[in-house]
Amino acid sequence: xxxxxLDGSFRQNRPNxxxxxxxxxxxxxxxxxxxxPNSRNKNGICSPLELPNNDERIVSIQIQTVTKFKTVTxxxxxxKGLISPDRYxxxxxxxxxxxxxxxxxxxxxxxxxxxxxxxxxxRVKRGWRPDRTIVFCxxxxxxxxxxxxxxxxxxxxxxxxxxxxxxxxxxSPIRGNSxxxxxxxxxxxxxxxx
Length: 194
Prior knowledge:
This is NADL2 protein. 28% of the residues lie in helices and 15% in strands. By secondary structure, it is an alpha/beta fold. The chain has a domain at 75-173. The protein has a four-stranded mixed sheet with strand order 1-3-2-4. Strand 2 (84-94), helix 2 and strand 3 form a beta-alpha-beta unit. It is extended, with a radius of gyration of 22 Å. The chain starts with 26 loop residues before the first helix and ends with a helix.
């Protein structure tokens, strides 16, 4: 299927979904569960998380997760490329979910992708077209484990592997304090230097 003309899909009633329940736990909890009292980290030095030789541990975890069905919606649009329309630059952000902890995180992501689209559309009105197709994606379900982007990627796996040349993430575009660290690329370092 083409990436650009499929109306959407639903993962309900699909036999290929696993029935295995998975509960993510933190690395620090894993370290407590599998390490012996003699093998604690010394002086903050990182060590691999592994059981001592020939040791077995049985861990019982009581999970009180309540399963609920939620509708997750992705918002996807595109600007068709002029020279290589079958090559995609995917620009992804996320939009608000009910369980977002930091409102500024989703707001900044949405504001930046909206401003980016607006700026490109002003150029399009003056006759400009990108060489490649730019696909704009605002992912839903981010707070639930990036469900929106994961399912979209699964649905279009073959098309994405064949046609995507870059992914630009605007997931958390604004972070930190007033310091700017230009470590992303040499061209960004040069721009900041100038």
